[in-house]
Amino acid sequence: MRLGGLISGMDTEDVISKLMAIERRPVELLENQKGQLQAKREAWNRVNTALVALDTKLEALRQADTFLKTKATVGDSSVAQVSVSTGAPLGERTLEVLQLARAHVVGSWTKPSATDALGLTGRPVINGKTLEVVASDSLETLATKINSLGAGVTASVIRVDSTSFQLVVKANQTGVANKITMTDDGGVLQSLGLTSNTLQVPLDAHIRIDSVDVWRSSNTISDAVNGVTFELKGLGTTQVKVEMDDAAVVSAVKAFVEEYNKTVDAINAETSYDSTTKKAGALFGEISLLGLQSQIRRILSDVRSGDVGITTVNYAAGVGAGGHLKLDEQKLLDALQADRHAVMRLFGAERVNVALASAGAQAAGLDDLGNPNEYDSTIFAASGAINGDKSADRWGTPGGGWNDATSGIYPDYLQITFAGQRTIDTVNVYTLDSSVYPAGTYGIRDFRLQYWDGVTWVTLSTVTGNTAGMVQCRFKEVTTDRIRIAVDRANGTGDYSRITEVEVFQKDSGLASAIGEALSAFTGTGGVIKGKQETIDKTVNSINQRIETWQRRLELREQTLRRQFNAMEVALNKLRNQNTWLNMQLSNLIVAGDNKKW
Predict the structure, then answer these.
(1) pLDDT of residue 304 exceeding 90
(2) CA angle 63-87-399, nearest 5°?
(3) DSSP class of 122
(4) Considering its fold, how many domains does the chain have in total?
(5) Coil vs helix vs strand at 383
């Protein structure tokens, strides 16, 4: 029971509330700390979102197709539309469309009704498919039956006028090769008129590309010029120009610059301090984020991004400038025109193969004792595996690839020495693989990829059971001047080791790749942000446990205070009762004394 200051006259609820407010100060401090940590965690989420968005924009700059994309322009779109794919030959061509491809179309004689029974029976064949015709069939039921045959034709009934209907059968594909073939039975097709009433003869498309005649069964021609597809629309002559789509490159670089600036703003918002309001961002003082910004700026500087028109805006340049990038589009276009592949390497879209003879590399076929091991030093020399030709088409001719000289004896070694020390992280091994010599029968099966560390050979990757024509080995970068493929078994019993090409790629240090690697260190599964958030979560859990402990203590403390105040009220009540009794006794004594005196 709460007396609530009935005796003392005190507002004990208010007193207890104020005392408990003092007692709750440690909890409030913990809750404030928890709130700050949660705000920091949310801030890391925002930063992570910004960094991932930036890396997404970088992805296009890591792709060779972005820089090698081509586009086509057509002078007269009523003649043709043209699309191109990567690798299409550049230049301007004259396209003449002399004839459009047409489908074969036949029709029946007109009938007064589309639904009346025709009274015909038989089993005619259309394009190799048998059509079951019964006496009750009408033009409409025949159209339905023909369409269900799967004969590569489409049948329909056309109302010619108010009293005439015609069954029309059209080949689904154009061209002479797709002419409708019909074999009559019971005179059904002849009676209908389908065998003699040709509405449209089949025609092949006829075009002329730079005075070269080309015939095709379709109005879509994709095999006349590599990577170019002509969609024929009408007769006539037009110019077709294929050129590099530099606008796509500018767009991709511009998207990166814009996203980078957004990321800078996002990081600044979380790490800034406002001296006027005395308020700091949730991640103020996080050195790791400032370090990331510095690292990216250093990458931009190291790879000479200014050569492609990307520069950093001076902090004193005005509003919104703080560390932003800007793009000089014309300078980027000029760089692409001057040396497209240099631009690709700068961004990291083109890997450098250090195993090319043209790059100073040398190759040797060796046995396990280090002796030369080539089946024929003229045809199957090891140098044929580092000439840049990955195809198996040249196998058995000089430069077509390496074949060892010791059938069924392993290991065999193909050793490649670079023109000096190189930092590498990817090796592609191409074994013999063609329609005549499939890898599953003639290729290498088990092998080890090794590098020389200056003292001994160290294995980077082990491959077993291979039946593919190409195997890619990726590994943490190493610096070396040579590698070797140690072949332990070929797919053919007692067979040879056959390798058509080996590509060894230098570690990609291009702008997009380097920045992407820096971002990954933050956004990856085991990255900085994940670690920061895990630490915050552990701290928050610890604070929650401390708050729970304090809450239990405060509940007990409040109960104690109430008992103490209740006890005080009870004591005061007793004192008041005693005081009342004494006052009554004194009053009685005074009255008694006064009566005696009287």
Answers:
(1) no
(2) 95
(3) B
(4) 4
(5) helix
Instruction: State pLDDT tens for residues 403-443.
Output: 999 999 999 999 999 999 999 999 999 999 999 999 999 99
For the packed helices 329-338 and 340-347, what is the interaxial angle rounded to 10 degrees? 120
Q: Map tokens 């040879």 to a residue.
A: 496
First to last CA, the chain: 51
Count of CA atoms in the C-beta half-sphere (13 A) of 508 = 24
The torsion defined by the Cα of 78, 84, 88 and 94, in degrees rounded to 10, comes to 0
Q: From the centroid of its chain, how far is CA 159?
A: 53
Q: Are residues 416 and 463 in the same domain?
A: yes
Across all residues in the chain, what is the average pLDDT?
90
Amino acid symbol at 451: Y
For the chain, helix (H) and strand (E) counts, in that order, are 12, 26
Is the predicted pLDDT of residue 511 greater than 60, yes or no? yes
Cα 402 from Cα 385, distance rounded (Å): 6
Check: pTM over 0.85? Answer yes or no.
no
User: Between these two residues, 308 and 31, which has the higher pLDDT value?
Assistant: 308
| Integer CA distances (angstroms), 368 to 286, 403, 416, 421, in order | 56, 15, 15, 25
Using CA atoms, how far apart are residues 102 and 151, in angstroms rounded to an integer?
18
Whether 379 and 496 share a structural domain: yes
Contact 580, 20 (CB under 8 A): no
Is residue 474 in a domain? yes
Confidence band for 9, pLDDT divided at 50, 70 and 90: low
For tokens 């081509």, the residue is 70
The CB density around residue 391, as the number of other CB atoms within 10 Å, is 13
Q: Residue 426: which CATH number?
A: 2.60.120.260
Helices (H), 131-187: 139-147
Q: Where are the alpha helices (DSSP H) in 176-230?
A: 188-192
Same domain assignment for residues 381 and 445: yes
Percent of the chain exceeding pLDDT 70 equals 95
Q: Among 169, 165, 178, which residue's Cα sits nearest to residue 204?
A: 178
State pLDDT tens for residues 378-390. Answer: 999 999 999 999 9
State how far the Cα of 442 lies from the Cα of 585, in Å rounded to an integer. Answer: 127
